[in-house]
Amino acid sequence: MTQMIFDGHNDVLSCLAAGRGEASAFGRALPGQIDGQRARKGGLGGGFFALWPRDEHALDATDPGPEATAYDLPLPPEMLQADALKSVKEQIEIFDQLVAQGDLRLCTAAADLDQESGPLAAILHMEGAEAIRPDLGELDWLYDRGLRSLGLVWSRVNRFGTGVPFRFPSDGDIGPGLSEAGRALVARCNEMRILVDLSHLNAAGIRDVAQISTAPLVATHSNAHAVTPHARNLTDAQLRLMAESGGLAGLNFERSFVRPDGRGDSDVPVEWLLAHLDHLLNHLGEEGVALGSDYDGCDPPDWLTRVENLPLLVQAMERHGYDGARIERICWRNWQRVLRDTWGA
Ligand code: ZN
């Protein structure tokens, strides 16, 4: 039987908003890495669907090219709140359409993950809080629309904090911590029981969230810095803070976050993904590691290009000696565990 997978991050919504495929075709076939048909083949049962305030310049800052061995791509410019809100609204409409079509079902409680079949279980996540004004005015509206997970920043600066650039090698200790508004946003998310995502946040920002937040520290799609010293990955000190909080990290498939040399080359032996999992397990424990593919937002290894390839990763975990219970936790149950601890139900 195919192992079912709940995944910590995909960018299907912003791809559809960019015109890469029609939302009406999700259940059949899309040109990208995830669609309904391929999800069924690969055992994907659900995941975090990101709203990403889209800015055409931003993607230029993410790709070092396959040959680069050291790089420091500049942070893209800040985004205007009105532009970000417009972009997010477009993507929420697409999300609602996918739910109405029966392709997705909105998850707002950990018990929604009891069921592994049927429409994909979808958590509405926002990657970067640019759409929210400093008085946090839009947060209630977003919550009403289903938002239950929020990354304060993507890899750029906003009024709440600073994201890490795509830099290698780097420990992500770049720029200041959270602003006053950023600290207030974390506290408000705690009150509303919205998950606060650490992925893309800089080191000072992560320290601030760790100090303020009363919830488990979660990085939905980030890897181990000890294996690949990329700014987007988590240092051992950060993993310790996360472990103390009962937190979790989701394994990202992006080549340059997985390859120890930080290159964007598609030749990525599975051993390197397993090295990240082993390291994360050592630091975060059996209940602190899951998957966060970044499908439709990253360049995965050539053998893991699309969602139907997920069983190859599961088979590699088996060959590596992970038992069934551990695989089940990494692939599904740990997400449910941390959501229960964060959302309270
Ligand atoms: Zn991301």
**What distance lies between the first and last C-alpha atoms, to the nearest angstrom?**
29 Å
Q: How much helicity do the residues have?
A: 25-40%
Query: Biggest sheet, open or closed, and with what strands and sense?
Result: 6 strands, parallel
Rg (C-alpha, Å):
18 Å
How many alpha or pi helices? 11
Structural class: alpha/beta
The topology string of helices and strands comes to EHHEEHEEHEEHEHEHEHHEHH
Compounds present? zinc ion
> How many β strands by DSSP?
11
Name the shape in a single word: globular
Give unreliable regions as ranges: none
Beta-strand percentage range: 5-15%
Average of pLDDT: 96
Give a quick precis of the structure.
Helices cover 35% and strands 13% of the residues. It has helices spanning 12-17, 36-42, 81-100, 138-144, 180-192, 203-212, 236-244, 255-258, 270-284, 310-319, 324-343, and strands at 5-10, 44-51, 71-72, 104-106, 120-127, 147-151, 167-168, 195-197, 218-219, 248-251, 289-291. The longest helix has 20 residues, at 81-100.
Describe the protein:
With 345 residues, the chain is α/β, with parallel strands linked by helices. It is built from 11 helices and 11 strands. It has helices at 12-17, 36-42, 81-100, 138-144, 180-192, 203-212, 236-244, 255-258, 270-284, 310-319, 324-343; strands at residues 5-10, 44-51, 71-72, 104-106, 120-127, 147-151, 167-168, 195-197, 218-219, 248-251, 289-291. The two termini are 29 Å apart. The mean pLDDT is 96. The protein binds zinc ion (ZN). Zinc ion binds next to loops.
